[in-house]
C-alpha cells in the first residue's frame, strides 16, 4: 500500500469575491521511502500541495489517503495528531524558537510525542543532532547558528520523532548554493539511513538534482512525473 | 505540559522592554488598589473609632424620646434607672451583661459663655474622668493641664473653644445653662486642661466637667442623658446587643432603647457600602492596566505568527497554544501584581505610621460631624493579597483575548514565505 494517495485534489482560495484555483485536479501516489521533489515556478501551487499532504489544510475537493487513513474523515484535532506523530516539517525560514537551544528546539517535537522514555528522549535528540552534523552545537541558540546550521536543526526536529513522512517547503531557498547542497545531502543521507520518506519543493535546478523522483507542477496541475535511477543522482 | 510553562517563561525575556512596561502597568494598578483599599479601610476604621469613642460607645442606651431630639440636648428625657429607681442600679445590671466591659454615663447639655463680642454656644459633657481616659484618646489630646477631677467645679476645653472665649488654662469662666427645670443658671468654673485633637467637635464645641457636678448643677441627681456600653471589640456588638435588649425588656421599661454604633451613625453604613462599590472601581482600574498588557500580547502574537503556525504544524492543539499565551500573560500578571502588592504594602505601612491629613480639604464643613481629619491607612496583608489575587485573575482573563487570536491561527501560516 502506498504511503500517500491523492485523487482529484482541487484547492480554490477565496480572495474576497475572486476565486483563486491553486490546485486543479492533482493525482499523486507516493510510496514509503521515496525522496521526491516537487518543482515549479513561483505561484504554481507547490506550497498548497504540501499543505494538503501535510494535513495543514483541507482540499476543496478530492481524496487523500495517508498511511491507509482517509483524511477527509478527520477533524481538526485528529489532523493535529496525524501531524504530531507522523509528519515532520522543514520550512523555508527554519521557524526555530529563538529562546530555545538547538537541543531544546529538537526536544520540543519529541516531547509532544508520547512514545519515548525520558532518558530515551535525551539520547535520541543528541543522536539526531549528531547525525545531521551538529555534534557539539546542541547548546547554541538559533541566533548563534548559521543558516545552514539552523536548517539542520529543523531537519533534526522533523526527524527526531521518527515520522513516516517529512515535508520540506523550499528548504534551501534562504541558503547559498554550497549550503543548499549540504542541507540536501543531509536529507538524502537520512532518507537512505532511516528510510524516512521525503517530499520537498524547490525551484532551484541544482537542488532538484538530488531527488529520485521529480514532479513538476504548473498552474496547479502535475505536468511531469519522472523517476530516476540511482546512478543519475549526484553525490 | 510542563515544558510549555517553561517556554512561556522563557518567552517573557524575548521582548524585555515590552514585558517590563506591561508588568509596570500591572504593578502600578495593583499598588493603587492596595493604597486605595488601605486608605478606605483606614478611613472606615477611624470614622468608626471616633464615632464609638465620642458619640455612641459600642452600644448606646438612651431614652427613646431623647434619641428623637438628640441634637437639642434636652434634659427632659434622662436615663434615670429602671422605673426611675436610679442610675446606679441600672449601670450595675448592664455591667453584668455578658460581653459588656464598661458602662459609661455621659450627661450632655447645652451651654453658653458670653464674651465681650458674642455669646459662644457650647456643649457640656458631664463625665466620669477615669472612664473617659480609659475608653477614649483624651489622655493623648490633653496637651496642657489635666483632666477634671470628681467633686470639683472645673472644666477642660478644646483649644479653639478657649480661643473663642478668650481664656486659657488656669482662668476662671462663667458658663450659662438651662437646668432640668428650665431655669437659667450661671456657674463659674476653673479651666484645668486644654485638648487638642483632629476632632472639630472636641476642639470647638465640647467642654468636659465631672459628672457629679453636672448632675448637681442641672438638678439631675443620679441621672444622665445617655449610657455608653463598651465591649471588647466592635465585632462583638451583634452578639451583645440582643442580650442588652433582652435585659431592658426584662425590666419592662419601654422608654429605653439600645442602639448599636452602626444604627446611630449615618456615615458608617454609607462607608461600608462605598467600600463594596470601590471593589468595582478596583476591577475597572486593573482592567485599564490590562489594556497595556493585551496590546503588548497582541503585538507579540503578530510577531510570532509563523512560530505559532509552526507549533500548530508540529501538532500542538489550539488549546495548547491558548495555554502557552495565557501562561505568558499570567506570569506577567503574577510578577507585576506581586511587585504592586508588596510596594503598596510598604507604602501603606509607612503611611500607617505617619498618617495622611486631609483636614485642609474639609475646613468649611460643619463641626458637629464627628471625625478625625488624620487618616491612617490600614496596612494589612489581607489588602495586599486581595489586590494581588484580583490583579492576577484580571490579567489572566484579559490575556484570553490575544491568546485566542494565537490559538485560532491556521497551521498554514508557518509555510508562508519571508
Ligand atoms: N492563502 C491564500 N489565499 C489566496 N490565494 C492563495 C493563498 N495561498 C496561495 N494562494 C495562491 O495560490 C497559488 C499557488 O500558491 P502557492 O501554493 O503558494 O505556490 P508556490 O508555493 O508554488 O509558490 C498562487 O496563485 C497564490 O497566489
Ligand atoms: Mg511556496
Written account of the structure:
The complex is a heterodimer of chains A (235) and B (418). Chain A has seven helices and ten strands. Chain A has 235 residues and is an alpha/beta fold. Chain B is an alpha+beta fold and 418 residues long. Chain B folds into two domains: 2-51 and 268-417, no CATH class; 58-260, no CATH class. A six-stranded mixed β-barrel of chain B has the order 2-3-8-5-7-6. In chain B, strands 11-12 form a two-stranded antiparallel ribbon. In chain B, a hairpin with a 5-residue loop joins strand 6 and strand 7 (184-195). In chain B, helix 1 (2-11) crosses helix 13 (318-354) and helix 2 (16-56) runs antiparallel to helix 11. The two termini of chain B are 31 Å apart. Classes of the chains: A alpha/beta (235), B alpha+beta (418). The interface between A and B is medium-sized, with 31 and 25 residues. The complex binds adenosine-5'-diphosphate and magnesium ion (MG).
Shape, principal axes of CA atoms of chain A: globular
Structural class of chain B: alpha+beta
Q: Order of strands across the biggest sheet of chain A? A: 6-7-8-3-9-10
Number of helices of chain B: 15
Helix count, DSSP H or I runs of 4 or more residues of chain A:
7
Global geometry of chain B: elongated
User: Please, what is the average pLDDT of chain B?
Assistant: 91
User: What is the H/E order of chain B?
Assistant: HHEHHEEHHEEHEEHEHEHEHHHEEHH
The total of beta strands of chain B comes to 12
Q: From the alpha-carbon coordinates, what is the Rg of chain B to the nearest angstrom?
A: 31 Å
Biggest pleated-sheet summary of chain B:
6 strands, mixed, barrel
Integer-rounded radius of gyration of chain A: 17 Å
List ligands, each type once: adenosine-5'-diphosphate, magnesium ion
SSE topology string of chain A: EEEHEEHEHHHEHEHEE
Q: How far apart are the first and last residues' alpha carbons of chain A, in Å? A: 30 Å
**Residues in helices of chain A, as a percent range:** 25-40%
Instruction: Report the oligomer.
Output: heterodimer
